Structures are given as structure tokens and as C-alpha cells.
């Protein structure tokens, strides 16, 4: 008996550790879904921007981390036809701590704010040579310095094209017009169908009345036919 008890408890003990392992696995899988990558950097929803030569543009970048920030290192590069030109770099010691940064480009200003997880830059007086990709890079010491980056594309144009706007206006009005017409058409159709159905209902009422009559007459008819059929051969 004592041996059996011992065996039983050993089994339950094994089960318990198995359950723990299981729970741990489930937990880590859940965490994995929840916190896919520790750090994420983003240059926003719209990552391509057209700007006029001579203007000053904000090149946006923000970061977020579900495990927290610790000794965040960041930099900005301009992809000059394959050669990466470093525009600025810096670090943020902890969440909300003031960033320390250095700028290596005369027309670049760092306008980030660590309280808003913002590491954006301003590029002054852009020229056509500034056209291209701007890469925002960051790595968080807290997640083993894994690299993360996001790209923002700047298109420098002679003038912000009006045609695009008129084209969108045209497209929007055409689509709006078509949708409006469809709605109008559907309302008219619904009304017509409604009235026709109402009429039909009345007709049906008539029909029901008449069909009963028809039934009667048919019965009468068959009988009549019967009598007729019976009558004709005789005649
Ligand atoms: C933009 O470039 C064009 C052609 O190079 C030039 O004529 C124009 O003055 C420039 N505009 C600005 C605002 O610098
Ligand atoms: C970019 O590089 C390619 C070849 O590497 C070259 O043909 C092209 O002219 C370059 N463009 C500019 C704008 O420098
Ligand atoms: C941008 O251009 C304006 C006018 O040409 C000039 O006063 C200003 O110093 C320039 N800014 C930078 C950062 O180069
Ligand atoms: C980042 O900071 C700049 C400068 O203050 C601001 O213009 C920009 O809107 C901010 N971006 C975001 C996504 O908060
Ligand atoms: C991360 O980026 C650095 C440059 O900042 C590079 O030297 C390193 O190889 C990259 N690591 C990985 C894993 O891509």
C-alpha cells in the first residue's frame, strides 16, 4: 500500500511538472503573439511624401516597445543610391529620458521627443538631390540589441502637382455621383416595386376571389364538360 501511494504521488508529481511545462509553453506562446517583436519603429502610415524643392519637411519616425525601453540607440540614414549617409544618431537611456544626439548634416534638425516616442527629423530647404529613402534605425538594449528600421521616401518635386488633386476630385465626384445614382435608382425601384406589389396584392385579392370563382366554375365546367362529354357521344 505504502509503495503504491509513493508511486501514485510520484506520478501526480510528474503530472504537475508536466502541467507547469504546458502552462509555461502556453504562456510564452501567448506572450509571443502579444509581443511579436520587442521594439517597433514606424515612419507612419504614409511612407512616401511629395514635397517641393526649397521647402522644409518633417521626416517622421516613432518607436514603441511592449517590453520597455532601455538604452535605445537610434540613427537616421539617407540612402544615397546605395551608399548610406548617416544624418544623425543618438540614444535614449530609459523610457521618457531626454535623448542625447549628434547631427551630421547641416540641414537636418533632430525634433524628437522621448516622451512621445518620437525620433523624427526636420530636413530644411530641400533640393532635388534630397530625393530618396530615409531610414530610421533603432535597437533596444533590453531585447539584445536586435535591429529595427523603417523607411520613409521623399519625392522632391518642382511643384506640388495640382492635376493629382483635380483627378482625385474628378474620381471622387464620379464615384460619388455613381453611388448617388445607384441609391436613387434603388429607392425608385423599391418604391415602384412597393406600389406594384400593393397593386398586385389588390389583384391577388381579386384573383383569390375570382380564382375561387374559377374553381367553382371549373368544377361546374368539368361537370358541364362531363355532361357535355357524356352528352356528345350520345348525340
Ligand atoms: C525649384 O527648382 C526649380 C528648377 O530647378 C527652380 O526654378 C525653382 O526656383 C526652385 N524652387 C524653389 C522654391 O527653390
Ligand atoms: C545610381 O547608381 C547606378 C549604378 O550603381 C548608376 O547607374 C546611377 O546613375 C546612379 N544614380 C544616381 C542618381 O547617382
Ligand atoms: C534655408 O533657407 C533659408 C533661406 O534661403 C535660409 O535663411 C536658412 O538659413 C536655410 N536653413 C538651413 C538650415 O539651411
Ligand atoms: C514628432 O515630433 C514632431 C516635432 O515635434 C511633430 O511635428 C510630429 O507630429 C511628431 N510625430 C508624431 C507621430 O507624434
Ligand atoms: C545591426 O545593425 C548593425 C549596424 O548598426 C550591424 O553592424 C549589425 O550587423 C546588424 N545586426 C543584424 C543582426 O542585422
Automatic annotation (TrEMBL):
* Record bears the keyword Disulfide bond: yes
Q: Known InterPro entries for this protein?
A: Ig-like_dom, Ig-like_dom_sf, Ig-like_fold, Ig_sub, Ig_V-set, Myelin_P0-rel
Topology versus the membrane: Single-pass type I membrane protein
Keyword field contains Membrane: yes
What is one Gene Ontology biological process annotated in the Swiss-Prot or TrEMBL record? cardiac muscle cell action potential involved in contraction
Transmembrane intervals: 20-39, 170-197
Q: In which domain of life is the source organism classified?
A: Eukaryota
Keyword annotations: Disulfide bond, Glycoprotein, Immunoglobulin domain, Membrane, Signal, Transmembrane, Transmembrane helix
Q: Using the record's annotation, list all stretches that form the Ig-like domain.
A: 44-153
Coiled coil located at which positions?
A: none
Cite a single Pfam family from the UniProt record: V-set
Show the GO cellular component annotation of the record. Answer: voltage-gated sodium channel complex
Write down the Gene3D superfamilies for this protein, in alphabetical order. Immunoglobulins
Query: Per UniProt, what is one GO molecular function of this protein?
Result: transmembrane transporter binding
Q: Kindly list the places in or outside the cell where this protein is found, as annotated in its UniProt entry.
A: Membrane
Q: What is this protein called?
A: Sodium channel subunit beta-4-like
Amino acid at each position: 500500500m505504502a509503495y503504491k501511494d509513493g508511486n501514485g504521488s510520484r506520478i501526480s508529481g510528474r503530472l504537475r511538472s508536466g502541467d507547469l511545462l504546458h502552462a509555461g509553453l502556453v504562456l510564452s506562446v501567448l506572450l509571443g503573439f502579444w509581443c511579436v517583436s520587442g521594439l517597433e519603429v514606424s515612419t507612419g502610415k504614409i511612407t512616401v511624401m511629395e514635397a517641393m524643392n526649397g521647402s522644409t519637411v518633417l521626416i517622421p519616425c516613432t518607436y514603441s516597445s511592449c517590453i520597455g525601453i532601455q538604452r535605445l540607440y537610434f540613427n537616421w540614414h539617407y540612402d544615397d543610391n546605395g551608399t548610406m549617409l548617416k544624418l544623425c544618431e543618438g540614444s535614449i537611456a530609459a523610457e521618457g529620458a531626454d535623448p542625447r544626439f549628434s547631427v551630421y548634416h547641416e540641414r537636418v534638425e533632430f525634433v524628437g521627443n522621448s516622451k512621445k516616442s518620437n525620433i523624427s527629423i526636420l530636413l530644411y530647404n530641400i533640393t532635388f538631390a534630397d530625393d530618396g529613402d530615409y531610414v530610421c534605425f533603432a535597437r533596444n538594449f533590453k531585447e539584445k540589441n536586435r535591429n529595427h528600421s523603417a523607411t520613409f521616401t521623399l519625392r522632391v518635386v518642382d511643384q506640388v502637382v495640382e492635376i493629382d488633386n483635380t483627378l482625385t476630385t474628378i474620381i471622387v465626384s464620379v464615384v460619388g455621383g455613381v453611388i448617388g445614382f445607384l441609391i436613387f435608382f434603388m429607392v425608385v425601384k423599391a418604391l415602384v416595386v412597393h406600389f406594384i406589389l400593393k397593386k398586385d396584392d389588390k389583384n391577388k385579392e381579386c384573383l383569390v376571389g375570382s380564382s375561387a370563382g374559377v374553381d367553382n366554375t371549373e368544377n361546374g365546367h368539368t361537370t358541364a364538360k362531363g355532361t357535355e362529354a357524356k352528352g356528345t357521344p350520345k348525340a
